[in-house]
Amino acid sequence: MKVYEVRTVYQKKDLVGVTNAYYYTVRPMRVLNKVMKGLSLVLGILFTVFSLIVIVGMLFFIPAFESEYRSYLIFSALFGATIWLLIGLRLLRKSNVPLARGLAWKNYQQKGEELRFRFDPYHFVQERSNARSEIEYRAILRVCEDIERFYLFDSPRTAFIVPKRDFQQGEPDEFRDFIARTTGKSVEYIK
Predict the structure, then answer these.
(1) Helices (H), the chain
(2) What is d(CA 175, CA 178) in angstroms, rounded to the nearest whole number?
(3) Is pLDDT at 100 greater than 60 in this prediction?
């Protein structure tokens, strides 16, 4: 009975990889996602630059207005520029540029925590310092692989990340065949 064991501590590139795997596996959405990411990036930059232009422009043009209207102008310009800036930053985050990927890592709560996987023919176990889960292979919806790791999706948006660098028992090449056989899912290679 072949058993595979992986002990890992997730790195930033592992979380970026699972995001890429998710978008790659949603086939009908691939082209649309690329277009939307590009559009979000362009609009985010435009909104952000426009808000900065308004703020800088305010410094030059405000002294030209009468003092009774100056406070209204300052308030409306700052309010408008703030709204445009927030929209621009939100669009930049939505575009999934490296800054947004860095935020995913920043928000990851288990940094530095060791994670253990043990795969046997019937189920696999995921263990952390304070939790243990047994997962049956039929719960896996999709299996993906890139050059550095495997992704076992248990829902459309979440996956178990199994880095190839951290196999303690078994080899990644053998694991690919094992996981395809036990889950009944073909392993999709992503670029």
Answers:
(1) 12-25, 30-61, 67-94, 98-107, 172-183
(2) 5
(3) no
